[in-house]
Amino acid sequence: MGQICCKNDGPVSGAAECYTPTEQAPSCPQGCAPYCVSDRDQKQDVVPADEAAVLERVASMPFATVGPPGAEHLASPIGDPIDAHGTSLAAIKALYSKLQQQQARLDELEARSRALRARLQSESTCHP
Hints:
This protein is mainly alpha-helical. The protein has helices at about 50-60, 80-125, and strands at about 5, 15-20, 65, 75. The strands form 2 sheets. The chain has a two-stranded antiparallel ribbon.
């Protein structure tokens, strides 16, 4: 009860292993995250995330590449793959929201521009 069970990711398949979450390791151990079940309906204290704040935090994260040239990997400050997935999706959602707001503003400015051009054109034809 209260354990997280998963199959280890790797070349040798075996029986599922179960872990008891602790404060230091609250989620799936490295290597088995793709198989862990993250059912939102089974979680407690779920509150909406502030996606814009997540985006701001992602923008300030230090990313680096590690590994030999030609085989580099991106290293992020988020150690838990499940948290990294959630962070990525929240940031994408915030970017989409910003894009929608900018598109609405652009549409408004283009409409104003068309109206001004039409007004200038009608004024110039009325007064030669």
